[in-house]
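Below is how a single chain appears once it has passed through the pipeline. First comes the sequence as given, then the structure the pipeline wrote out for it. We keep one example in the README because the format questions we get most often are answered faster by looking than by reading.
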Amino acid sequence: MPSEGWDPFNQREQREGRLTANRIGELVETGLPGSYDRTHLQAFHAYIFQDLPQYKPGIIRPDANELWMKYRISESAPANEGHRVFYAPRGVAALVSDALRRAGGIEGMTALDHQRFAEKMARLYGDLDYAHGFLEGNSRTLRAFTRQLAHDAGYRLDWHTTNVDAVIRDRLYAARDIAVLERHFPGLPATPEPGLSRNEMDAWADLQRLRADPSARLETIIRESSRPIAAESVTQAEARPPAADAGTAYWTRAVESGRAIQATERGTGRGYEVDRYKGQSPAAGR
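Resulting structure:
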């Protein structure tokens, strides 16, 4: 019999967390060569989630039939101060591709002063977070992807600085959610106006509260969590040990397993996001 307090969901979460943490550690050691385009981002997700095919490793999520959102409850705030975060419901693949094309890969991030680097990386992170390209693990994938991109462009971006305690983690969540809400609800007025929808009114109120901490901005957090690397120690992705074939193999195998799951669901007539998550993303903050 399970002991009192046994939580099978939490046990599964911990196991999955260990598996993905191990894969992220491997990426730090070996890198994953690529052009920092959409295919490269998908390869990162496929590598990190290669042991968990239920999350469709490397596959861009399909368009949602409803709003694609999650409800955020901060660790350091009362539960009644939660808020909804709205991600792009449709056109996800195009949004990811456009964001990465604007960023310009290594060339677009190289030779920038620290402030400009933080601004450009924050825009890229916000755009990709809003697109929310995968069914699970968007944050883990973005942190690994942007860490390597920053390194190859001459900056050490240490996301561990954002995980010191609950307050600091919540500051990152707030910064990310501000960026996402600003993209989903562009042009919200400075004060509420007649004609705003219920979602727009809620987003306006949530943004007012989240912006109360001026340091809760992606640009600020990335600037604080990064520093230039001496030029002689910078190793670009093209000069890494030849791991491209291994990375491609992981990506191909993971994508194939994910497609097999999708084919099974189509065969049974079940819509994944509607049947399982009702148009919402699986979990908050990951």
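The first strand starts at residue 68 and ends at 72.

See the next section for the split statistics.
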